[in-house]
Design a protein that fits this description.
nine-stranded mixed beta sheet, Pseudouridine synthase, Structural Genomics Hypothetical 15.5 Kd Protein In mrcA-pckA Intergenic Region, Chain A, alpha+beta, 2 domains
């Protein structure tokens, strides 16, 4: 089987997928841990379809990319900096945490917010899903410490609500008052701590926040701290 220039070198591919350094891949080859059907002597510079490669007899781990739906718990941060505490990436398999391109979150949920979080190593998808131009709706369930007022609905929807420290108003957002202290907010943008800051601008402190939906995706029965893989062509 000749090399195919459409694909990366074998050692580069396995290193990017978190199997080990290129030097370690050479060791795997000597131990015959890497096999390709129809090839007796597999070399590090071989370029073949990743779907044909086996590591210890198993297909490669999602060689075309990852799209992950996670039920983020409170207390984890969307950061790669260990100094910030528990990371959402700590909840993923070790091999995924060292992939290149790096797995990143599609927008952030702050440490005190739970709910639906998307993660991927497809960085062009991150831009597509976080840009306001693409109108991907996010739904949040908020609990506040002061009674909600009916006029807040119109203020959220006005497109004139200003956040502290910013010069451009928020895009129109949908606010549904569920009970005296509970509301549902639908946004199509994702500014820093936006839901909390929108309520703060109206004198309300958010004491609990949960994202229940991202585009057409919902958590369904996914338990807190669990995740599942989605097909890369998932409609969002």
């Amino acid at each position: 089987m000749p090399s195919d220039k459409r694909y990366p070198r074998l050692d580069q591919l396995l290193a990017s997928l978190g199997y080990g350094s290129r030097r370690e891949v050479d060791i795997f080859l000597k131990k015959k841990l890497i096999t390709i059907e129809g090839i007796d002597k597999v070399k590090s510079d071989l370029r073949v379809d990743p779907n044909l490669i086996r590591f210890e007899g198993e297909p490669l781990d999602n060689p075309l990319g990852l799209l992950i739906l996670m039920h983020k718990p409170v207390g984890h941060v969307c950061s790669h900096n260990d100094e910030e505490g528990k990371l959402v990436y700590d909840l993923l398999p070790a091999r995924w945490r060292v992939r290149n391109p790096q797995v990143v979150s599609v927008g952030r949920l702050d440490k005190d917010t739970s709910g639906l979080l998307l993660l991927t190593d497809q960085h062009e998808l991150v831009h597509a899903l976080t840009s306001p131009k693409h109108h991907v709706a996010k739904i949040y369930e908020a609990t506040v410490e002061k009674p909600l007022r009916p006029e807040m609905v119109d203020i959220f929807a006005s497109g004139e609500l200003m956040l502290n420290g910013e010069s451009k108003p928020c895009l129109p957002a949908k606010l549904e008052i569920i009970s005296e202290f509970q509301a549902r907010v639908t946004l199509q943008e994702g500014r820093y701590h936006q839901v909390r800051r929108m309520f703060a601008a109206l004198g309300c402190h958010v004491v609990k926040l949960h994202r229940s939906q991202f585009g057409e995706l919902m958590l369904s029965d996914l338990a807190l701290g669990e995740f599942k893989l989605l097909p890369l062509n998932t409609k969002i």
